[in-house]
Amino acid sequence: MRIGIDFDNTIACYDGVFHAAALENGLIPADLGRDKNSVRDHLNGSGRKDDFTELQGYVYGARMELVSPYPGFADFVRAALNAGHMLSIVSHKTKHPILGPKHDMHAAARGFLEARGLMGTSEGQINPANVFFELTKEDKVARAASLGCEVFVDDLPEILAMAGFPDGMRRVLFDPESQFAGREAAGVERLMSWAAIAADLNRERN
User: Fold this and answer.
1) What is the pTM assigned to this prediction?
2) Burial 48-70 (b: 16+ CB within 10 A, else e)
3) How far apart are CA 76 and CA 11, in angstroms?
């Protein structure tokens, strides 16, 4: 089975990372909520939207060592590859931040995957040739189509709702915070953990 997987907030978990990076740069009070939305809302609400935009580039380009994979993802990769599935990472992001230093965010994401042992040429790792960072959402969907993905996992319902994915492809919404409960779009399956995704694919295989 050919399985496509998004990167940001699907593989890479940023819990607490934006808070830590914002504190490093003196952008927020220490007692602010640790989630990304609290940081964003604080900066946007105080007229510093550009500061948040620059902060995103800083995290995605310079501080990926603060980021961890979601629990269970490494186990999913090993089990899926051992079962004979083909895994591809297909994401979209600009190569350089819109504001601030011109970090190479594609290289930073690849470095994260290598450092966590998720990407490489050894057994149980995703082949680097199957990792794609596209510049637009449309290019991302086109890449998934060209790969013939039979399953695609993403944290954004609007991506899974886009036209252009292969006909008959299973669309899996990764929703670890259960923020989309009861709001699933037609044809989209909502699962809350990588363990649940692994179990679901294993049931289908058996």
Assistant:
1) 0.93
2) eeebbbbbbbbbbbbbbeebbbb
3) 11
Q: State both tokens at 41.
A: 């809302």
Give me the chain's average pLDDT, please. 94
Span(s) in the chain for CATH 3.40.50.1000: 2-13+68-205
The β-bridge partners of 91 are 133
**Orientation of helix 49-62 relative to helix 105-115, angle to 10°:** 50
CATH architecture of 2-13+68-205: 3-Layer(aba) Sandwich (3.40)
- Give DSSP secondary structure letters for 86-109: EEEEEEE--SS-SSSS---HHHHH
Closest CA to 135 of 105, 177, 160, 103: 105
The whole-number pLDDT of residue 181 equals: 87
Exposure on the CB side of residue 143, measured as CA atoms within 13 A: 22
Distance between CA atoms of residues 133 and 130, nearest Å: 10
